[in-house]
Amino acid sequence: MTEQYGTDGETAPSARTWSGDVVVVGAGTAGCYAAATVAREGYDVVVVERKNEKEAGHIACGDALKGADAFPEAIPKEKIQPAFTNTDVDHGRFEIPKEDTVLEIPVPGELAVIDRWEYGRRIIDGAKDAGAEFHYDTVVQDVTQEDGRVTGVRAKRDGDVVEYESELLVDAAGSLSILQDKADFSDSTFDTNVTYSQFCSAYREIVHVEEPVEWDDALVFKPTTRAAGYLWYFPRTSTEINAGLGFQMNEEPMTLVEDLKRDLRNRPEFHGATVEDKLGAALPTRRPYDSAVAPGYMAVGDAAGHVNPTTGGGIAGAAYAGKYAGEQAIEALEVGDVSEHTLWRYNQRVMDHFGSRYAGLDIYNIFTTAVDVDDLMGMLGALPTEKLSEALYSGSANIGWRLKLQTAIDARDHWRFIYDLYKTKNVADEIIDHYDHYPTDPRGLPAWQEVRDDLMDKVYATTGAAPKY
Ligand SMILES: Cc1cc2nc3c(=O)[nH]c(=O)nc-3n(C[C@H](O)[C@H](O)[C@H](O)COP(=O)(O)OP(=O)(O)OC[C@H]3O[C@@H](n4cnc5c(N)ncnc54)[C@H](O)[C@@H]3O)c2cc1C
Q1: Per-residue model confidence (pLDDT) at position 401
Q2: CB 203 within 8 A of CB 177
Q3: Beta-bridge partners for 228
Q4: Quick one: which atom of ligand 1 is closest to the CA of 283?
Q5: Residue 242 alpha carbon, nearest atom of ligand 1
Q6: What is the pLDDT of residues 294-322, one digit of tens each?
């Protein structure tokens, strides 16, 4: 690794160059896990982050972490565990005011609500302990390429241009990553079928209440009243609540700050509450990128759509994508080949682990954009909760015979809706099955995409939804 500082003359800004094995852009979950994975093996890794050292790790989030028990080892779990402020959460509490119903649905697996900024600082420390270097206050503005291969990035720090050169670039710059606007992917498999309408706009506040809330063992969800959106109340502790809301960007925009304020005012447990922190951001609520690689380049986490599109949960996906990209970077560096062919295994591991499940769940997301929210809530209110829990977390929404029977008895008013959901489930299962046959080689991608796109046409025909891709 070399770092050179120079100047082109009295009026020109000083030019600096960092060169090494891997440049990671973004010090979030995906970037820290990718950097830690590569640095642990002794390679030169720098993480370039636009925020300053104090702000780094401060990310807009609901702070709910699912699957914390099985996080990648590149950053030891004991390192992040002190940021898990509430590990007693074991169910979702769905408030459906229009139906005057509250559903309590168990959530399988380890669940925690965390102090997100503390967690953010701890994963940065973990990546540093593994040997990664961090450059803060450094805003990446451009991607450099040579003969179709990505060779690095150009950034600005303190008004100076800083050049980064590396064998591999990991794009962990989050939702709507600017790197993807700058790079030319025309000769690669990299997925560029990405538009803002496949994202959700979300906002959250950290609120302190005087008296402990009664639901400190639950993740609370509620539909918004004024537009097709959702609210959440996630207890970091019994008196510190992450309260937020979001809406899909293909829907009519909500006034997030005002709408949250309105709901908070109407909840007695928040009388006299104080707001400690406010943040908002976009998050991908879409299927994972068909391919997140190009020669010399891998995108991870939000930058590659690695978020559960129905819950908005993206921390675990980002951590695993970081691990898989890091391991693939090591292999590419060892064989001295950063072509798509070598990097392809990264795509496969993402699809195997969670990508195909998320692509299946995306179909339910599409379904909900085409239905009446009141119908949806009415039907949810009529379902048996333990079966609903299985359905929600199995990915394939495996609605068993007991659920069908119970539903037929309890939800007679919603039979048309349930039949549409049933048909949608069948196409979602076909999609998941097709993702289970994700190509083993970049050359197989076009044929695989053709079949998938035919299945998506079936989804739009079944649901009546406008095409999302
Ligand atoms: C309001 C909200 C609530 C959410 N709630 C949850 C939840 O409860 N549970 C859950 O699991 N997930 C939740 N998510 C999603 C989750 O936060 C993300 O999926 C996760 O943080 C993705 O991690 P990442 O590393 O890919 O990106 P990020 O954490 O966004 O990190 C990207 C980093 O890149 C940096 N960066 C961006 N551009 C540049 C640039 N040009 N130059 C240099 N640096 C740059 C950013 O400053 C940032 O530090 C929520 C998201 C939002 C917006």
Answers
A1: 44
A2: no
A3: none
A4: 53
A5: 8
A6: 999 999 999 999 999 988 999 999 999 99
- Specify the pLDDT at position 219: 95
Structure-block tokens of residue 26: 């973004």
As for ligand 1, residues whose beta carbon falls within 6 Å of it are: 25-31, 48-51, 59-65, 139-140, 172-174, 178, 202, 204, 244, 281, 283, 301-303, 307, 312-315, 318
Q: Which one of 302, 306, 310 would you pick to mutate in the ligand 1 pocket, going by the greatest count of ligand atoms within 8 A of its CB?
A: 302
CB 51 within 8 A of CB 58: yes
Token pair 């040579």 is found at: 146
Q: Which amino acid is at 390?
A: E
* Residue 150, SS3 per DSSP: strand
Ligand 1 centroid to Cα of residue 282, in Å, is 9
CATH number of 86-111+197-284: 3.30.9.10
pLDDT at residue 6 in the model: 35
Going by CA atoms, what residue is nearest to atom 39 of ligand 1?
173
Q: Torsion angle, CA of 316/317/319/323, rounded to 10 degrees?
A: 140
pLDDT at 232: 96
Rounded distance between C-alpha atoms, residue 58 and residue 371, angstroms: 36
Its pTM surpasses 0.90 = yes
At 309, is the secondary structure helix, strand, or coil?
coil
- Give the number of the atom of ligand 1 that is nearest the alpha carbon of residue 179: 41
Distance linking the first and last C-alpha atoms of the chain: 41
- CATH 3.40.50.1240, applies to 2-81+116-192+289-354: no
- pLDDT, position 289: 98
Enter the tokens of residue 365.
């997301």
Domains in the chain: boundaries: 2-81+116-192+289-354, 86-111+197-284, 358-463
pLDDT given at position 412: 58
Please identify every stretch of the chain with a pLDDT value under 50, giving residue numbers as ranges: 2, 4-14, 395-405, 409
What size, in residues, is the chain?
469
Closest ligand 1 atom to the C-alpha of 322? Answer: 25
Tokens standing for residue 230: 């959702």
Tell me 352's DSSP state: I
Q: Is residue 180 within 8 Å of residue 194, measured between CB atoms? A: yes
User: Ligand 1 centroid vs 463 CA: distance in angstroms?
Assistant: 31
CA–CA separation, 375 and 379 (whole Å): 6
Centre of ligand 1 to C-alpha 197, Å, is 18
Query: Ligand 1 mean position to 406 CA, how many Å?
Result: 40
